[in-house]
Automatic annotation (TrEMBL):
<feature type="transmembrane region" description="Helical">
    <location>
        <begin position="55"/>
        <end position="73"/>
    </location>
</feature>
<dbReference type="GO" id="GO:0070069">
    <property type="term" value="C:cytochrome complex"/>
</dbReference>
<keyword id="KW-1003">Cell membrane</keyword>
<feature type="transmembrane region" description="Helical">
    <location>
        <begin position="474"/>
        <end position="497"/>
    </location>
</feature>
<dbReference type="GO" id="GO:0020037">
    <property type="term" value="F:heme binding"/>
</dbReference>
<feature type="transmembrane region" description="Helical">
    <location>
        <begin position="93"/>
        <end position="117"/>
    </location>
</feature>
<feature type="transmembrane region" description="Helical">
    <location>
        <begin position="190"/>
        <end position="209"/>
    </location>
</feature>
<protein>
    <submittedName>
        <fullName>Cytochrome bd-I ubiquinol oxidase subunit CydA</fullName>
    </submittedName>
</protein>
<dbReference type="GO" id="GO:0016682">
    <property type="term" value="F:oxidoreductase activity, acting on diphenols and related substances as donors, oxygen as acceptor"/>
</dbReference>
<keyword id="KW-0479">Metal-binding</keyword>
<keyword id="KW-0472">Membrane</keyword>
<keyword id="KW-1133">Transmembrane helix</keyword>
<dbReference type="GO" id="GO:0005886">
    <property type="term" value="C:plasma membrane"/>
</dbReference>
<feature type="transmembrane region" description="Helical">
    <location>
        <begin position="424"/>
        <end position="447"/>
    </location>
</feature>
<feature type="transmembrane region" description="Helical">
    <location>
        <begin position="20"/>
        <end position="43"/>
    </location>
</feature>
<comment type="similarity">
    <text>Belongs to the cytochrome ubiquinol oxidase subunit 1 family.</text>
</comment>
<dbReference type="GO" id="GO:0009055">
    <property type="term" value="F:electron transfer activity"/>
</dbReference>
Amino acid sequence: MELDIVELSRLQFAMTAMYHFLFVPLTLGLSILVAIMETVYVMTGRPIWRQMTKFWGTLFGINFVLGVATGITMEFQFGMNWSYYSHYVGDVFGAPLAIEGLMAFFLEATFVGLFFFGWDKLSRVQHLVVAWLVAIGSNFSALWILIANGWMQNPVGAEFNPDTMRMEMTSFTEVIFNEVAQAKFVHTVSAGYVTASVFVLGVSAWYLLKNRHVELARRSITVAASFGLASALSVVVLGDESGYSASHTQKMKLAAIEAMWETHDAPAPFTAIGFPDQEARETHYAIEIPWVMGLIGTRSLTQEIPGINDLVAEADTRIRNGIIAYDALMTIREGQGTAPDDVRATFEQHSDDLGFAFLLLRYVDDPRMASEADITKAANDTIPGVAPLFWAFRIMVGLGFAFIGVMLYFFWRSSFRRQTYPCWALRAAVIIIPAPWIAAELGWFVAEFGRQPWTVDGVLPTALSVSHLSIQDLLLTLAGFITFYTILFIIEMGLMLKYIRKGPFQDVEETEAWEARHEHRLRTHDGQGPFAPAGVQAASALDEPGAAFNAKPAE
């Protein structure tokens, strides 16, 4: 990779974004799991569920703080490293990010404080409401960020204004209900739920292997397996929706993921394995499954999926139309608002292809001066790196199906084998803890790397989006980010491991009082019979408002 401004800016943003996403999926999933556990506590009154809520909530809090810190830093880069991008599409892209900050993040951050410091200040129901508001706030944050990202993948509800040289929003509704954004949202949050489920499953399995906190671990595995199974199934189903969306919004990305060089007769086969050769434009030793890609991509047996070569030819045509739009745009700019109506009409006719003319700026200063060779190079630039996309997608999908198998197995053992688990299964649950993060990072790699050479698909090339910085500035900030983020990662891992080893705290008096009340309910309904336990009166006293309890580590 050539160390120029564009590639260094991409590398820096990729590093910070993928590092930030180490925290996001666990935050999304744990917020829901913690709210579910507290719901059970409020419904049953059993202290073990409060203990579980506090323990997993502590791990959620550590992860949440690090996620916020890395997310804010990442957003600053839009102004630092991608200033022309911010100028060009800021009217559209900035709106969902602003809403995310004002609505979702403040909601989430405010109620996180109440969740951790409100246990003795709020009633059970009030604290439960706070827990669910934290979960809702976390997911709302993801929604607005993915709406912004979805617009970059499929820029609907906006038009280019030749007088201001910027993209301007024409329909906020279209931006919100963009099919790519909605598919990405449900797919991403479901992946987060799987991540948290695997994490809870693995940590609980470790406790069982160590014969520590057995009751908490068994119940946690039951919740994680049930929630994780539903989430893992939804990831696969919703991933199919993303594939269908890409078939008509990002055709080149889909063709590159499948290493589909030529257009197949419908329905197209799915290449299970192969070795893409981008230079020769063929896939060696390909093993194909008939019909599958056609069904996934088009949901029909008659519609074709265009191959890479046909899409390059289409890009060639769009570049030529874009040159016409660029010429009209320059005339409008020179006329300063007094350009003839026929020139504006010409621009409007070809404006959808203006971004393709910008691809030529990599080779010539004025697209109107481009040669046939320049146009051919620009058209070929619309092909992303096929081999990395091909394998990243297949590893991600393979892990997705593996999660279904893991969750199904533990769900079966929890439901029909009295929560007993063989040691090999518990060890496997611990080993696979990193796997959902690998799958999530690969998913983002496919989504973002597959969009190249565009920052905004078909509108703004990546090469035009960067700020005018020096190589030294970028190398210095990149080194600074790597150092700072490495320190944060060490702190995160240290805190998580510390509290996992430490384990949950048991509210001893509350637990003993609940056990006494429970035994009393089993023996007599009125508490006056000869079998009423001796601790009933003490238990009743603890039920009084303002009753205090001491907490110490669980044995």
